[in-house]
Amino acid sequence: MKLHYCADLANFGDRLNPYIWSALLPGVLDEDERYLLVGIGTLLNGKVPRRPMKLVFGTGVGYGEPSRVDERWRVYCLRGPLSAQALGVDPALAVTDPAILVRHMPRPYVPTRNRPAFFPHYLSARYADWRAVAEMAGFDYIDPAAPVEQVIDALGSAPLVITEALHGAVVADALRVPWVPVMAYRHICRFKWADWCASLGLAYEPRALSPLWDLDRYARGTLRLKVQCKAALAERGVHLPWGSPARPLYSGAEQIARVVEQLAALPLAAEPRLSTQAASTDASERLEELLVRLRADAAAAASRPAAADRRTSSPWAWSVG
Questions:
Q1: What residue ranges of the chain have pLDDT lower than 50?
Q2: CA distance linking residue 27 with residue 230, whole number of Å
Q3: Kind of pairing, strands 140-141 and 161-163?
Q4: Which pLDDT does position 311 carry in this prediction?
Q5: Are 270 and 293 contained in the same domain?
Q6: Which CATH number fits the domain that encloses residue 203?
Q7: Beta bridge partners of 56
Q8: Which residues are bridge partners to 38 per DSSP?
Q9: Can you state the angle between helices 166-174 and 277-303, rounded to 10 degrees?
């Protein structure tokens, strides 16, 4: 069974997949492309290969058109109720994001830090120097491209996490660290946030941060020329009727100071979020039970002769849900 995820992204949430599943499903994952494990991320769209059998464990809807679930899908659980509704499957399949299982991964002793931590979306980190902004606001900065273990330790040791990245909140919540959702750019997917929050009885109400821009960070080559041309036209009142709006080239000192002020105010101005212990424990235990079922199904499939696979569509006890 092959792990299906966005392996080419330097993004913490996506890179949790090999980290978690290789530990929780030892001996199950390989390069057999007849079966795909679709786990952590917003993966249920047209990019999922059509022909293989798909085993869905906690992923969700959010980018593009929802996948069409048929006899080639075995859905163990989903990230939240909005994904179940979008797919038209049993609402009972909505459990929570499986990144909550990070609480079962071994962690070295990490001293608790005194300063809150700021965790941007991985795309936001490319648009401006958010590390400098966080440090000016008195925050520790968590790099979404840092090694997975380092990010987990930083999230688990912070007294408070201000996060634009969904899995910053998922892992912080799993480790019982309060968090505050923020949004600086339009690429933040509200649907996936609301989906996960609903799974734990929470509401998604992000605090706004002003976007910052640094052309030298986010644009190279042809993209850089396109951004410069759009900005030059916009300055002259010319807005192209197609494509995305012109992005600023650079944010000035006044804009940066305003965002530093916005960020610094959040620990006192925003109400931290944390799911109840009961909701968190219940979701975690349900995932653990389903993980046992997945391991048993994988073992049963591995023990069946190849001829059985040729006679039937799958060696799995296959059904949706």
A1: 307-313, 317-320
A2: 52
A3: unpaired
A4: 43
A5: no
A6: 3.40.50
A7: 38, 75
A8: 4, 56
A9: 100
